[in-house]
Amino acid sequence: MSTIKETLVPEFSDWQHLMKLVKNAAEKDQHEMLLTMMMTADERDALVARVNIFNELLKGEISQRQISQMLGVGVATITRGSNELKSRSEEEKQTLLELLSANK
């Protein structure tokens, strides 16, 4: 009986590994298949809501409560998105707004 224990380490251990996987899939036009397989329908819906939260917060035309009602998510969810944006530079926020605007 062997007393040596193998240390198991996942191949994808951090966010950057995942981003590289998504980038590689996008370069092969396989990103939709990859992301659809990796996320449940609820997770995909939550991601769509998050994108809409950022979009509405960056536009600044309606209140957080109105965003909450429009998207059917809690005010706390909007607040988390708002806090994430507050932690970002103006340049990052502008880049995100441009990305969101370009994909309408």
From TrEMBL:
Description of how the protein assembles with itself and partners: Homodimer.
InterPro entries found in the cross-reference section: Trp_repress, Trp_repress_bac, Trp_repressor/repl_initiator, TrpR-like_sf
Role this protein plays: This protein is an aporepressor. When complexed with L-tryptophan it binds the operator region of the trp operon and prevents the initiation of transcription.
Domain of life of the source: Bacteria
Record-annotated DNA-binding residue ranges: 64-87
Protein name (database record): Trp operon repressor homolog
NCBIfam families documented for this protein: TrpR (TIGR01321)
Annotated GO MF terms: DNA-binding transcription factor activity; sequence-specific DNA binding
Organism from which the protein derives: Vibrio albus
Membership in a protein family: Belongs to the TrpR family.
Compartment(s): Cytoplasm
Keyword RNA-binding recorded: no
HAMAP family named in the record: Trp_repressor
GO biological process terms on file: negative regulation of DNA-templated transcription
Keywords: Cytoplasm, DNA-binding, Repressor, Transcription, Transcription regulation
GO CC field: cytoplasm
